[in-house]
Structure formats: C-alpha cells, structure tokens
Amino acid sequence: MKPAALKVQEALVALGIARTLIELPVSAKTSREAAAALGVNVAQIAKSLIFTSNGSPVLVIASGANRVDEQKLGRLTGGMIRKADAETVKQVTGFAIGGVPPLAHATSLPTYVDRALLQYEVIYPAGGVPECLFSIPPQELVRATGGQVVD
After folding, report:
1. I need a surface site. Which of 4, 12, 84, 120 has the fewest CB within 10 A?
2. Are strands 111-114 and 148-150 parallel, antiparallel or unpaired?
3. To the nearest 5 percent, what fractions of the chain are helix, strand and coil?
4. Separation between Cα atoms, residue 98 and residue 31, nearest integer Å
5. CB distance 149 to 113 below 8 Å
6. Distance (Å, rounded) from C-alpha 1 to C-alpha 23?
7. Count of alpha carbons within 13 Å of 31, Cβ hemisphere only?
C-alpha cells in the first residue's frame, strides 16, 4: 500500500472506523471512473474538493453527481470562493488531486458535506491515492470529519 493510502487507513483505525481501503486495479481520478470501477452509482462517490474562502481553505465533500454551487458556499463561509490550485490542495491536505480523502489531512479544515450523500446506505470517498477508496455510511463520515451537512 502506498504511503498516502496507508496514512488514510491509519486515520480510519485511529477514529475507530472499521473500514479497509479498497484497492482498484485501475486509477480512478474522477467520480465516473471510481463508480465504474466499483460498479456503483456515480452519486455514491464522495469527492473531496478544496476551495478557498477569502484565501482560507475549506473542504467540500460532494456527491460525484453534483457540482458545488460556489455562490451557496460563499454564503455559508461568508467569503469569496475560489477553487484551490493543486499546490494549495497538496499543502493543506497532504494529498494530490485525484486521491484526496475526506480525512487525515495535514491541516484542520472547515468541512461541508453534501446532503445528497445521506440518501445512500454506503458512500465511497477517496483513500489517498487514485486507485484506493473506502466504503462508509454517510452519517459515519459526517461524524468522523465533523462536517456540516448542507445543500
């Protein structure tokens, strides 16, 4: 297991989450690729996206079927929203775009979780690298991340 994936696995254990990373035989950098590899609905993929609000990073965990409404996010954070660049994502999370997990980050981030994910029994966030994911009930992910559920 690659170091980034191992970091996520160790974080899951430390949080008391009994989940093992799923290693795919292919890279899954996008929600569609991940859903196809797992044989699940793209909406069950929980993509972890980093934005900045007035320059401060925030995490959005969104359904793979949805786009983030930057105006709504701006109202939630009270700031001007920008999509973070690859360098910022790596700096604040410790992970590269395409495998950013919803936890085990280098820094603590305000977190917003897409309400649409709550309709599923199980969702699939990234596991630190493009070929790893893990399954988790959405409410357990909300608890683990301390995220605020939003539309």
Report:
1. 120
2. parallel
3. 35, 25, 40
4. 9
5. yes
6. 9
7. 18
- Residue 27 contacts residue 115 (beta carbons within 8 Å): no
Residue 136's beta-bridge partner residues?
Answer: 123
* DSSP classification of residue 49: E
- Tokens 């797992």, residue located: 38
**This model's pTM is above 0.85:** yes
CB count within 10 Å of CB 45 equals 25
Q: What is the pLDDT of residues 94-133, one digit of tens each?
A: 999 999 999 999 999 999 999 999 999 999 999 999 999 9
* Residue 1: C-alpha distances to residues 9, 68, 102, 129 (Å): 10, 31, 18, 10
